[in-house]
Design a protein that fits this description.
CATH superfamily of the largest domain: Nucleic acid-binding proteins
Shape: globular
Helix content: 40-55%
Number of helices: 9
Oligomer: single chain
């Protein structure tokens, strides 16, 4: 299984890139969002990858973050969601947007992806809602595929491309949501209700820091008179 590729971008298409790894070109299918986040042709890049294996087909799909890759793997477990539909959802919403939409049960947001109808969007929300808290937390803890060195697929040598630039740490908003989820869990709230409250608070623009998110989420979780 190819879990990560690091090398030099040789080509960028409308929905794929070719990454040269020590003279071998790997064609990797990516979402529009991932494509726009990658550096120009000729520069070093790295992607987490998932390999689709069929009787007559081998295709690599690439992701900037492990959170995005894990959402892809979960989305494709839903009946009616193949790799193409999963990439459309991730391209439209991004991994954080998918986390929020599913935590809130917002099937309308999932329908924003091209080719995803109302029934399938509702099925995605229903089947994956319990998985949202763990992946929302992952967004605040993990880095990008381009972080660090080339990994196991690149050996030292004159032909090896320059190491990719180190990626910045996770955005403060993602880290704050992860910390708020942890705090609410410690207070005894269930993962699904905590994730829904944090997602709703974040979507309402209740500040990007952890303390503000926790206060806003607690207000949402408080018993209504």
């Amino acid at each position: 299984m190819i879990g990560r590729l690091a090398g030099r971008i040789d080509y960028k298409g409308s929905d794929q890139v070719m990454i040269d790894v020590k003279g071998v070109g790997y064609v990797v299918h990516v979402s529009e969002r991932t494509l726009s986040a990658l550096p120009p042709v000729g520069e070093a890049a790295a992607l987490y990858t998932d390999l689709l294996v069929r009787e007559d087909l081998l295709q690599l799909y690439g992701f900037i973050t492990m959170q995005e890759k894990e959402w892809h793997r979960l989305l494709t477990t839903v009946q009616g969601i193949g790799a193409k539909a999963s990439m459309a959802i991730l391209g439209a919403l991004g991994p954080d947007g998918v986390s929020r939409a599913i935590a809130l049960g917002d099937a309308t947001a999932v329908r924003a992806a091209p080719g995803v109808g109302p029934k399938i969007a509702q099925r995605v929300v229903n089947e994956l809602r319990d998985k949202a808290p763990a992946l929302m937390a992952m967004g605040g803890m993990q880095g990008h595929a381009a972080s660090g060195d080339h990994g196991a697929l690149i050996e030292e040598g004159a032909d090896a491309p320059a190491a990719p630039r180190r990626a910045p740490p996770p955005p403060p908003a993602a880290a704050a949501q992860s910390e708020a989820l942890s705090a609410l869990s410690n207070l005894g709230y269930g993962p699904a209700e905590a994730a829904g409250a944090v997602a709703q608070a974040a979507g309402a623009g209740e500040g990007g820091d952890t303390a503000t998110l926790i206060r806003a989420a607690l207000k949402l979780l408080a018993p209504k008179d």
